[in-house]
Model the fold of this input.
Amino acid sequence: MDDQVLGKEGKEGKEVDQTLTYVFDGTEVRMTGRQAKKAGVQKEHLLYEVTPIDEMQGGWKRWVRLTDLYSILPSSAEVVNR
Done:
């Protein structure tokens, strides 16, 4: 998943969805839309900037790999209501 580019399909055939929220280091975060890649390497490894959803958690930003993020699954009540 590290090799995915926003708006394009990655190796696993999935797109990175900027509207989803994730868990990083015990905090619910969202992607800011900014990306970084390591210069001068053949294989592209992307980092994604994330920030907390809840402003009470602070206004920090971190650069993370997709593999460091946990997707939040819908609760059973959300699944029933769909």
In short: The longest helix spans residues 76-80.
